[in-house]
Every structure is written in C-alpha cells, then in structure tokens.
Amino acid sequence: MRRTRRTSLCLAGVMTASALLAAPGVRAAEPTDGHLTDLVNPFIGTQNEGNTFPGAAVPFGMVQLSPDTGHSTGYDHAQHRIRGFSLVHLSGVGCRIGGDLPVLPTTGDVTQTDYAAYAAEFSHDDEQASPGYYRVGLASGIRAELTATPRTGVQRYTFPATEKANVLLNAGQSLHKKVSSQVEILDDRTVRTTITGRGFCRNTLPYTVHTITRFDRPFTAYGTWNGTTLTPGSRTGGDGAYVRFDTTRDRTVTATTALSYVDRPGAAVNLRAEGGRSFDAVREAARRAWERRLRTVRVAGGDETRRRTFYSSLYRSFLAPNVGSDADGRYRGWDLRVHRALGFTYYQNWSLWDTYRTQAQLLSLLAPREARDMALSVVRIAEEGGWLPKWGYATAETNIMTGDPVTPFLTTAYQQGLLHGFEERAYRVLRQNADGVPPAGLAMAGREANAEYIAGGFAPYVKGRPQTKLGDSDYHQGGSVTLEYALSDAMLAQMARGLGHLDDAARYAARARNYRNVFDPTTGFFRARDASGAFAGPADPARSVGFHEGTAWQYQWLVPQDLPGLIGLIGGARATNDRLDAFFAYDRLLADPERTAREVWVHGNAYDYYNADKYNPQNEPDLIAPYTYLSTGQPWKTTDVVHAALTLFTDTPTGMTGNDDLGTMSAWNVLSSIGLFPVQPGYGTWGLSTPVFDRVDLALDRRYWPSGGLTVTAPGTSDAERYVQSVRTDQAPYGRTYLTTRTLRTLRSLAFTVGPRPSEWGTSPKAAPPVLK
Description:
Layout: H1 17-21, E1 66-68, E2 81-82, E3 84-86, E4 103-107, H2 115-118, E5 120-130, E6 133-138, E7 143-148, E8 152-158, E9 165-170, E10 177-185, E11 190-198, E12 207-215, E13 221-226, E14 229-232, E15 236-237, E16 240-245, E17 252-260, H3 264-274, H4 279-294, E18 297-300, H5 304-317, E19 322-323, E20 330-332, E21 338-340, E22 347-348, E23 350-351, H6 352-355, H7 359-366, H8 368-385, E24 391-393, E25 396-397, H9 406-415, H10 423-435, H11 450-456, H12 478-498, H13 502-511, E26 519-520, E27 525-526, H14 552-555, H15 563-570, H16 573-583, H17 586-591, H18 593-601, H19 635-646, H20 664-674, E28 676-678, E29 685-688, E30 695-699, E31 709-713, E32 723-729, E33 732-734, E34 738-740, H21 741-746, E35 749-755
Parallel strand pairs: 31-35
Antiparallel strand pairs: 1-3, 2-5, 4-9, 5-6, 6-7, 7-8, 8-17, 9-16, 10-11, 10-15, 11-12, 12-17, 13-14, 13-16, 18-30, 19-22, 20-21, 23-24, 24-25, 26-27, 28-29, 29-34, 30-31, 32-33, 32-35
Helix pairs in contact: 5-20, 7-8, 9-10, 9-12, 10-12, 12-13, 18-19
C-alpha cells in the first residue's frame, strides 16, 4: 500500500546486472563463515521513502523499537536528529502510524516538552544495526542501544559522568494523531502510560496501547508535563514524564518497556514474562531468533552484495504481521472485548492488498505455523468484529486500498493446508464477505460495490461519490475493483469446490469471468464503467480512470485465473507478446537491463502511478506481470524481466524499490531470486524462472511440507547464462512452467539447467499455468 511514498532511487553504488547475478560453481549452500544475521542490513530502504526502520525487533514481534527522526513513518536516513526511540513501527508502510512512547536520554536541565525541540543530533558514522539490535552515539555524548523480545523493548543508555542524566518518556507525541494519553510514575523505578491514537492514511478509529517501563535502578528525581508545563516531583501527567539518574560513577541505565493492546495488567504480565534479563542476554536471544529464521533458506553462489540484499529481504519478510496477544493469551478483539487465544497466537496488522500477492505465500512456505495462526486471527476478526478486514491496524479497520484482498489471503492459507480443522469456519466468513456488504454500523467496508457487481457484473466507477465509511472507496476505483473482485471469486470458487460446496463453486467461478465486462474491444484494454454501464474516462489506457494506483496498462495482466481468456481478448498469443514487449520495453531491456529498470520503468517519482504505459516494479498491481510470459509461450522473457527488476534491490539506504508494505516487496525479491513465484495468488500455483543463486536449500516444516526440505539448483546461473534449458524434479524431466503446492509438498529437488540462449523449454501450450474453472 502506497498512499504517500516518494522515492527517488539514486544510482550511486548500484551494482550492474551482471555483477549482481554472477555466481561460482555449485557447492554446499553455506553462505558465510559467520552468522547469517551478519548479512542483513536493516538500513536498506530507510531513505527516499522506502519507509523501513533500522531498530530492534524479533520475528513478528509486537514491539519494533526504533529511532524516529521526524519522518512521517519513523526513520529517514537523510535526517540527523533523533526525537526518540519508540515502540511501534510498521516496515515500509506509506502512512503515519505507531511511534508510540518515544523515549530519549538527555543531560542537564529538562526545559522542553516538544520532541522536535529536544531532539538529539547524531551521525551515521556512529550508528550500527543488525537483526534485534541498534546502537547510536548521540552528539550529547550518550550512547543508546536497543534490543527487544516479542512484547518488550530494552534500552541501554551509557551517559557521560553527570548528576543530571535524564530519560524523557513522551506519551503525548508519536507518528499518529493522539486522542489521549496518561503518564504515571508508580515508584522510584517504574513508569506506566496509556496512549490512545488514530491516524494512518485517514482518520481511522482509535486504538489504545498500554506500557510499563521498569528501570534497573532508582531515579534520583522525576517529574511530568502537560503541554508545555513541566511539574518537577509530580507523579501523574497527561503528556510525558522525565526521570533522572546520577551517573557520576555508574554511567549505564537500562530500561525495559512492555507493551499491551489489552490493558494495564496485560503490560505488567508481559513485563513479568519477558523482562528481568540483562540487555546482553536479550540481545543474544534476539540474534538467535533471527538466525533460526534466516537459516530456513541457505544460498550458495552470487556475490556478497546479492546475498546481503537477499537476506535483508528475507529479514524484512519476517517482520509482520505482529503478535497481538499478551503472554497470557489475552487479546483485544475487533469488538473491543477481551478474548483469549487458545491453541494459537493472535496476530494483528494486515496490509492485505499488498501481502496477499507475495508475503502470504512466502510465510506459508517458510513459517507455516505462524502463517496458520495469522490466518486464524483473521477469521477471529470476522467472527468477533462482524466482518473480514481489508487493512487492519491493531483493533481498527482503516479501509485503505480497495477490492477484496482478504479472500486470496485466506484461500492461500487453505490451499497450503494451514486451515486444517477450521476450513468451514473460514469459508463461512469468506462467503459472507463475497456475497454481501457490511452493515452501516460496522467500520469495515468489505466489498463496498458488491451489490452492483453481483447484479450487473462490474463494480461501477462513480467519481466523487460521497464516502459512507473511513478509508478508500471501491466506487472510486471501479475498473481495478472489478478485476480484484473477479480474482477473489476465482480463488473462492476453488475453495468452495474443495469443501464440496458445488453450487457456490459454480456461482463464484461464473463471477470470476466478470473481468470480461470491463474489457473495451475498441481499445483492447480494460476500462472502468460508470453506473449506467458506459465506459468512463479517456480511451487512452495510459490515462485511464478508475484504477487504484495504476493505469489500464498496468492492470491488464491482473487476470491470473484465466490468462488464456485474456490472451484471447487481446487477440492471441502473438498480439499479447507484442503488448508485453512494449509494456516492458523489452528491446531496450535486452540492450541494457539495469538502465531500463531505472530510467524506463522507474521514472523518477515512485508515486507517479498514473499516466504510464510501462511496467511499475515498485507497486503491487504489477508484481505478477513478468510471469505472464509463462502463459504466452515465451518463458525466457520472464527471466529477462525478473532479473532486470532484481537490480533495483541494492545494499544501500535507497536500495528498496518503493515502500516494502509489511514485507511485500521483500518477499517478491526472495521468491523471484529462488525462481519460485506464486503466479495465482490465492491458489497453489508456483511459476518457475531462473534462480539467481547456484543453489538454494529450503528447510521446510514437515508438519505442512512432508519432504522436510527443497533444494533448488541452477549451476552457473549468471547474467550471461540465465536461460532455462531444462528442469528436473527429483531427477525426472519436467516441462511445465509451474509447480503446484501438491507437488511441492513432497518434492526434494528442483534442478535448472541454464544456458546463454532461450530454449524450447516451457514453450508448449500445455506448459502454461492452468485456468481456474
């Protein structure tokens, strides 16, 4: 989701395509003599609106403790003043949210309450980050270090020798809009806060976080503030508190802050469960947690830069969704009541319009137990809150983005075998969502244009239609919404058929063909239609209206359920390949892939979604577009496009191709680098393209993947040797351009033979991914 991002991807320090893809011969997949965490650079994407954060977190942790520099979503590498180290961040989102309880160490008298005024200067020369750890030297002479557990953040400050070493806890300022805040100094070591905020891309419903901070030694003084009024010695305040220490002898102060979205006792429970250890012990535990996650994928080949961008992307893919339940299993549901998760962990934060295309599939592959709990959490949201979410933050629906992203998210979980025992419960809420519209009293917008879509076969584009709920409106994006609804119907049809709901399956399968109702044969492109049924807006597909963050050129490939049908509408395989070549600027791509990626595809401002007729690798509508060639008899072109797009990922602060959207773009990099990509999001179809590593070993959970592991090999893969000559699955020749989840479950080896020129592999009509009927 990219509502406010701006990216200007600089060329300095960028590797060439050949350097990025160069690889030595096959060897055992052992990427480094040290730890895999050493290959992760958390600063990638922290500049030019990549909107990642460099701070400390554990995989899927509730807490993401990171510095805020004044940027709307937290940290900007181009800025040099830190306002505080706050507890909550979302990796790569395009709108302000989180940043709760920024804490900053200072020295001297406390005179300011605005963190923009008391912010501390720092230099990147004295800054370091690795998975689960962050350190920075402030210009004041204070060194700050951060680490985390799932539900706590731990800060260690090393002060100069002074009697006035302060820690400022600011409950009244954050990245979101504050509704209310309260601060209490409970004793000479403990501070408690309650913060209610709202915001994101619209003025969403409020959410509340509770914190409790325990210091490792007593304060020598304290006070609170309301607005600009400081009250020394006060124990309660509305906006913030400061506590003071004497560091003339012992210069180190450590604070552990626990977070809960449930209540104050929940924060105390989390502190008891996860606090009490030394900073170094917590840091080492966080590093080990990340090492275990990263070791699910072992690569060989490629140079260090390629491995660093790969493992950094893998790291970001495991940052969200986030634990939402406390250590005792309690969580606050979307009905704002307290529930208890029995037999699973409750998760929150759902960037579904983004993640259903890549990250959901990657987690189902590499973290299936967590992915199961995430899917069950979404079902719980519907059962407790009344409807399925679209873009949920904590207990609030933002309704950001359009279409029906929750359906392919949950059908992915079903197809991957993650909903065992809960299939009918999931289907029940999916059917409700697919056939209706949420009541006016619920915050969720669901399929807002569903009545018209079901009755007339398309979602109408109604410019300027007043919104009845917060967030985005499906009526404002009728062209793309019709395509998204139809995709979701196709995926739900497959689930319905698998569960024996055959009448439903036939009904949804028929609706999956509704994409045809917005195809304009006079232009050969999709076009939005107004409420009367007339095509709306300019006929020029590059200047189309009614497509969310894109144009008709970019959305034309979003029919993964029926690409042969789309190819027929366009005029056949030859006409479709000609159009794909124009879309990707293929002739220029062959001559100079990296320059084409940066100057033709990424043309300056990454938020220029509109008025374009070229591939946009920075945004979700185009993520599966390169894989369309698998269905047109020219699979080698998928490799050409994908490998050019991979050059946009670099080991620099500007090395993220736009917002990461809670791991969406990172997962695209990981899956495309492996050569295994979900070409029908919501169904178990994995497209094949040339890996960029000689060897990749995937360690898989036998509970969900009976093989226990998959080894992907492509000896000698490089820029010059990038075309698939043949594929073997467990030593047997394989001629199709895709694998199914059923095959993957028992597959042990996937072997690519590569060469310098395209071959006949995968070019027959039977080799293409299937039509979903």
